[in-house]
Specification:
467 residues, 9-stranded mixed sheet, binds zinc ion, 16 strands, 18 helices, 2 domains, Arc Repressor Mutant, subunit A, alpha+beta
Length: 467
């Protein structure tokens, strides 16, 4: 029997705010010292009260807008109760029935993927187990870090599509400056709800089930298994493929798939059963009494541009697709667009240099434009540009550097003059005496009052002398 795979994704992203979600502690879970970015709110001590982080809400609304989602006019917070050693309050402040964003979507290569909801919550602390298992400790630096959760409709039917969705989410949140979304550091984490159903079942499309209750939707799907702790893009693909094969084998044997939570074991490359699945009733959600209802004024948040649109903008000015993609990934695209606006003839070189040279990419936009312009009008070589960038890095201004290297215009006649006047040294050099070149370089440098670039003088001299 053949089965159709259906996957829904839950993607968690830690937001890049200065402070935590409900207190003023630094949002720095990677601080080298444990339990340093903590306060009574983080520890959930009696009498402490949470305070909302406006920036976290703004970033989430910005993402919601970029993904054409419906932004809630008002939203409230809920307590999700469960016991875990890294959760000092015994509950997590989250959003259950009132997510900040609903019905968003992402288009990847022409295929639309529906995002059911995007909501905000707080991250938990981190349990640290001693290698010899003699002790376990908890680090609360991460407790209370703003965590955004994105839940998709079950509309992926291949592991590859699910992986590409996660990659696109990473691109988007990076491009919008919402998160660094480094999966290795746990800044972005994926969970997949995976089910299979006989291919002859009429599978629901997300369009048909839009607005329906989840129960109605799941009737058309097989029993789903939730896989947690997927910590790389490769693992997204592997975990889904593994589950597809495991569930197929069970059904083929006439057994049934158990509704449960499993974890991805990246070393063994397989999923392992964790526990039977909690339902939302197990979490005993109730409204958070210590936080107010938040009213959102959508117009107050600027709308951001998606990576897809930004790639297109670059392509529309003639940037090849692969280069456009890299520029957007590295967030250097807007610079290229500005340069294109100012001096279109510099665009191509700007795009290449941004990617090729970290020295160039790290200059400010003004200096980049000035140097490119000087290079073009002054006929600079790539070496000259490299030296010029280095000098700016060493503290010179772009104007000073350009003034120096613009001397290059008159370099050639000076060299010719020096060669003519020092024929003996020229003969020495051409007959193999390297030292004679130093003398000639010295003569040129003296004539330019030290303003010329010594490397360039040497190169030009060698060129002219045919060595
Ligand atoms: Zn705190």
């Amino acid at each position: 029997m053949t089965y159709q795979l259906t996957v829904g994704l839950e993607v968690h992203v830690e937001l890049k705010t200065k402070t935590k979600m409900f207190c003023g502690c630094a949002n720095d879970p990677f601080d080298s010292k444990p339990n340093i970015n903590v306060c009574p709110v983080c520890y959930g001590l009696p009498g402490s009260l949470p305070l909302l982080n406006k920036e976290a809400i703004r970033l989430t609304v910005e993402l919601g807008q970029a993904l054409n989602g419906q932004i809630a006019e008002n939203t409230f917070w809920a307590r999700k109760n469960y016991f875990y050693p890294d959760l000092p309050k015994g509950y997590q402040i989250s959003q259950s029935t009132s997510p900040l964003v609903k019905q968003a979507r992402i288009e990847i290569d022409g295929v639309k993927h529906q995002i059911q909801r995007i909501h905000l919550e707080e991250d938990a602390g981190k349990s640290v187990h001693q290698a010899d298992q003699s002790a376990s400790r908890v680090n609360f630096n991460r407790a209370g870090v703003p965590l955004m959760e994105m839940v998709t409709e079950p509309d992926f039917h291949s592991a590859e599509d699910a992986k590409r969705f996660c990659q696109e989410i990473q691109r988007i949140v990076r491009a919008l400056g919402i998160s660094d979304a480094d999966m290795e550091k746990g800044q972005m984490r994926c969970e997949a709800n995976i089910s299979i159903a006989p291919s002859n079942w009429q599978l629901a499309t997300s369009k048909e089930t839009e607005g329906q209750k989840p129960e109605a939707r799941s009737q058309k799907l097989g029993t789903k298994v939730e896989v947690k702790n997927i910590n790389s893009f490769r693992a997204v693909e592997k975990a889904i493929t593994y589950e597809y094969e495991r569930q197929t084998e069970l059904l083929d044997k006439g057994e049934s798939v158990i509704h449960e939570t499993r974890t991805w074991d990246s070393i063994a490359s397989k999923t392992v059963s964790m526990r039977s699945k909690e339902t939302s009733a197990d979490y005993r959600y109730f409204p958070e009494p210590d936080l107010p209802i938040v009213e959102i004024e959508v117009g107050a948040v600027k709308s951001a541009q998606l990576p897809e649109d930004r790639r297109r903008a670059l392509e529309s000015i003639g940037t090849p697709a692969a280069i456009a993609q890299s520029l957007v990934d590295k967030q250097l695209d807007s610079r290229v667009l500005v340069i294109n606006n100012r001096e279109p003839e510099l665009t191509k070189e700007a795009a290449h240099l941004m990617l090729e040279s970290t020295a160039f990419a790290s200059l400010n936009l003004e200096d980049q434009t000035k140097l490119l312009s000087a290079k073009k009008s002054g006929g600079w070589t790539k070496d000259t540009l490299t030296v010029a960038m280095k000098e700016i890095g060493n503290g010179k201004t772009a104007e000073e550097v350009i003034a120096t290297y613009s001397e290059k215009f008159v370099l050639e006649p000076i060299i010719v003059e020096v060669i003519t006047a020092n024929q003996a040294a020229v003969n020495d050099y051409t007959s193999g005496k390297e030292n004679a070149l130093h003398f000639l370089v010295g003569q040129v440098m003296a004539k330019t009052k030290g303003k010329a670039n010594i490397n360039e003088v040497r190169t030009e001299l060698k060129d002219i002398l045919g060595q």
